[in-house]
Amino acid sequence: MYYREFGKYYKYKNQKTVVDGEKFDSKKEANDYQELLFLERRGIITDLKRQVPFVLIEKSKYGRAIKYIADFTYINCKGKLVVADSKGVKTDVYKLKKRLMAEKYDIEIEEL
């Protein structure tokens, strides 16, 4: 099911948003980014990054590389890398990529 808004169709009712010149796939992702920026400014987290790719399966004769692109990564107050995703709808593809992230990198994706 697709939803129409301003002449464009969106599958999961997400609304593209721009905040401070940065483009986001949804309002939720934009809000999550602002909260993480606040934490970074307070020194609670460090090294906040957006749209960080992780290769789950390398390119091979069977096709291109399969990647998971994290909405955010940062270092928490304990010095641990956190991979976070603004999730509205947990698709089957997302669930598979989440499992592959845990298997390959021993990283559990934090869902915001």
Radius of gyration: 16 Å
What's the rounded overall pLDDT mean?
90
Largest sheet: spatial strand order:
5-6-7-8
The DSSP helix count reads 2
Q: Which class of secondary structure composition applies to the elements?
A: alpha+beta
**Strands, count:** 8
Global outline: globular
Estimate what percentage of residues fall within beta strands.
35-45%
* N- and C-termini, Cα separation: 24 Å
Largest pleated sheet: 4 strands, mixed
Give the total of domains.
Answer: 1
Order of helices and strands: EEEEHEEEHE
Which consecutive residue ranges, at least 5 long each, have pLDDT under 50? 1-6
Helix content: 25-40%
Summarize the structure.
This protein is of the alpha+beta class. Helix content is 26%, strand content 37%. Strand 7, helix 2 (92-105) and strand 8 form a beta-alpha-beta unit.
Question: If you had to describe this structure to a student in words, what would you say it looks like?
Answer:
The protein is α+β, with helices and mostly antiparallel strands. It contains two helices and eight strands, in the order E-E-E-E-H-E-E-E-H-E. The strands form three sheets. A four-stranded mixed sheet has the order 5-6-7-8. The protein has helices spanning 27-41, 92-105, and strands at 3-5, 8-10, 17-19, 22-24, 46-57, 66-75, 81-85, 110-111. It has one domain. It is globular. Strand 3 and strand 4 (22-24) form a beta hairpin. 26% of the residues lie in helices and 37% in strands. The longest helix is centred in the first third of the chain and has 15 residues, at 27-41.
